[in-house]
Design goal:
Layout lengths: L3 H14 L13 H7 L13 E6 L5 E4 L1 H4 L8 E5 L6 H12 L5 E7 L2 E2 L2 E2 L2 H6 L5 E2 L2 H4 L15 H16 L5 H20 L9 H9 L3 H6 L4 H7 L1 H12 L20 E5 L9 H16 L7 E6 L3 H4 L2 H16 L2 E7 L3 H4 L4 H10 E6 L4 H11 L3 H6 L7 E6 L2 E7 L6 H4 L12 H18 L9
Parallel strand pairs: 3-10, 3-11, 4-8, 4-9, 7-8, 9-10
Antiparallel strand pairs: 1-2, 1-13, 5-6, 11-12, 12-13
Helix pairs in contact: 7-8, 7-13, 7-15, 8-9, 9-12, 13-15, 15-17
Length: about 475
């Protein structure tokens, strides 16, 4: 009981300043009793159906994600954008995600593997473990009977073939085709496809050299149909012929100037296109991605109730080219109806939003309802936050994230997640460098990030977040 002087002081203070907060006496209890008194709270997760990614850093709950389970309920689109500096865990996340998805029988994955070491792609070990031979696209190997993909493959519709030819030429030229060049290409393509259909050989495929030959020597009928001179048609198609000649006789020859290589298994659970032998900074990479994208659209995506994942590393080669981005926009819209999840892996968002294809990039980013952001520099994190609409607390902690920990934004449900790797997955995931987390335990890393996240959220209580 309080003494009279203290009671009088408290009463006077309450009169002047309002009621004084009561002081609670400490309670001695067991942890079993305490957990019933102080109930733990956490934000709702994404459900319990799908693949396990890891653990939410702040609440400690398991984090489960699957775009096919969430699509139509919590996700307007099943597409996914992964961002972050090198060495922070993007590659490990991609690989374990694919391995875990392949445990479901109705899953199929295509990977465009643009990185590698020792003459093989980064996904080579996983492919070997699954008994799969990667489709290695290499200009030098193609000359000796290596893999070829034919842009004029009969499995691609004539409309798709013409669209693909236009994209190849526009990417190589760095500008759109004018009407006259487009007309010359159209009549050359029509002449080639009609000539092949009239050919007595049933296995004869049209190839790029046929198009080049028609551009150099157009048919008289094509000029007469438009009431123009044959020499004009030839002149209009000259630049187009020179560009395609590079795929036939230039530095890119061998990969596209012949029938598609037989034996490519499109029913395998995992299909890996090894692009590691292609110069990532050359014009060959976006051309290659355009050809692979359209070829897959017409040969791989089918209404067979399978759930398909199309994972593209170095995806800025797609998003940063207006012509390739337009093709992939159509692929994403079309594939969404047939169960396609597109996963784009990019180091920096500024690589695409400030590029020549800013409009197309914005459209593709808008389709990606899931965004995973690993550690970035502070200025890059702020720019990423503005473009993606991240809460302020998340933007603040992105530069402080340690390897393996990322901010996940699943259609507005924002969490900080620690990616967990099993012992069985570890040798398949860490193929080219030692683990960067070895300096500290998982629990120490999670505690540090959770503390920073809590401090950031206290500073921004009005920020959009679902983290408790």
């Amino acid at each position: 009981m309080l003494d009279p002087l203290t009671s009088l002081t408290n009463a006077f203070t309450s009169f002047l300043f309002g009621k004084v907060e009561t002081t609670r006496l400490p309670v001695r209890t067991s942890t079993g009793q305490a957990q019933a008194v102080y109930l733990p709270t956490a934000a709702p997760g994404l459900g319990d159906s799908g693949v396990i990614i890891g653990r939410e850093v702040y609440s400690g709950k398991g984090y489960i994600y699957d775009p096919f389970q969430l699509y139509g309920q919590q996700l307007p689109a099943p597409h996914w954008l992964v961002l972050g500096e090198s060495g922070n865990g993007k590659s490990a996340l991609e690989k374990t995600y694919v391995l875990r998805q392949l445990r479901f029988r109705d899953r199929q994955v295509v990977v465009l593997d643009a990185q590698g070491e020792d003459g093989v792609g980064e996904w080579n070990l996983i492919a070997q473990q699954l008994g799969i031979t990667p489709i290695r696209l290499d200009p030098m190997a193609a000359l000796d009977g290596g893999i070829r993909l034919n842009p004029l493959d009969p499995s691609i519709t004539t409309t798709g073939q013409l669209a693909l030819l236009r994209t190849i030429i526009e990417v190589a030229m760095g500008r759109g085709l004018d009407e006259r060049s487009g007309f010359a290409l159209k009549v050359a393509h029509a002449a080639v496809t009609q000539g092949i259909s009239d050919d007595t050989s049933p296995d004869r495929q049209p190839i790029l050299s046929d198009i080049v030959e028609q551009l150099r020597h157009p048919e008289a009928e094509s000029a007469e149909s438009m009431n123009v001179d044959i020499d004009d048609v030839r002149a209009w198609g000259l630049d187009v012929a020179l560009v395609l000649d590079r795929l036939v006789d230039g530095d890119l020859r061998g990969m596209f100037d012949g029938p598609t290589t037989a034996g490519i298994d499109l029913d395998a659970p995992l299909i890996v296109f090894d692009l590691s032998h292609i110069d990532r900074n050359s014009i060959a990479m976006p051309i290659l991605m355009a050809i692979v994208g359209v070829w897959l659209e017409h040969t791989w995506i089918r209404p067979d109730r399978k759930k398909r994942i199309f994972l593209v590393e170095e995806a800025w080669h797609i998003i940063n080219s207006p012509f390739v981005a337009q093709l992939f926009q159509r692929l994403l819209k079309f594939g969404r109806r047939l169960g396609l999840s597109f996963v784009a892996v990019v180091h920096h968002l500024s690589d695409v939003v400030d590029g020549a294809a800013a409009k197309e990039a914005a459209a593709i980013l808008k389709m990606a309802s899931t965004r995973t952001i690993y550690a970035q520099k502070a200025d890059e994190a702020r720019a990423t936050g503005r473009v993606l609409g991240l809460p302020r607390w998340a933007v603040e902690i992105i530069p402080t994230l340690t390897p393996g920990i990322a901010v996940w934004d699943v259609n507005g449900n924002v969490q900080v997640v620690k990616h967990l790797i099993t012992d069985a997955e570890r040798p398949l995931v860490y193929t080219d460098r030692a683990m960067t987390e070895e300096g500290a335990s998982d629990r120490e890393l999670e505690a540090a990030v959770a503390e920073r996240a809590a401090a950031a959220m206290e500073r921004y209580p009005d920020s959009r977040s679902t983290v408790a």
